[in-house]
Amino acid sequence: MHRKGGVVAWQRPRVLLAEDDSEMRRLVAGKLRQCGFDVVEAATGADVLAVVEPVLLDGAPCPVDVIVSDIRMPLVDGFDVLGGLRDCGCATPVVLMTAFADDDTHERASRQGAAAVFDKPFDIDDLCDVVCALAPVAK
Question: What is the C-alpha separation between 97 and 119, in angstroms, rounded?
Fold first, then answer.
């Protein structure tokens, strides 16, 4: 929330979405926007860390309310993103998505502090419900 000319204006919660599949990224970003979120899109895990780490290292709060990330991405994967954020002291909720889920993946995500893991294909409304619970949208 911020004040603009004496009027209180609500800011939409911001979601940082990392997905290397452009079609999946477009679909998820569009649905999150329909649900009332401001969405920042990233094609790689490295892009996520490039956006968030410098801010955190300067001692500022995380510039996003929730991070939604694919796990399997080239070079910097979703687990690297989650670990990098936690190493910087970032407690921002992270929701992971994967097409390659197994029990070990879910256990590792839980150990690293992921808020949720979605196995592709998933119901996009379920993803929106979880993100809304983590960063409610003002109605």
Answer: 6
Nearest CA-CA partner of 42 in 7, 16, 6:
16
Q: What is the pLDDT along the chain (139 residues), one digit of tens a residue?
A: 444 444 444 589 999 999 999 999 999 999 999 999 999 999 999 999 998 988 887 888 888 999 999 999 999 999 999 999 988 888 999 999 999 989 999 999 999 999 999 999 999 999 999 999 999 876 5
Pairing of strands 38-42, 94-98: unpaired
Q: Residue length, the chain?
A: 139
Domains of the chain: 12-131 (3.40.50.2300)
Between CA 45 and CA 66 the distance in angstroms is 15
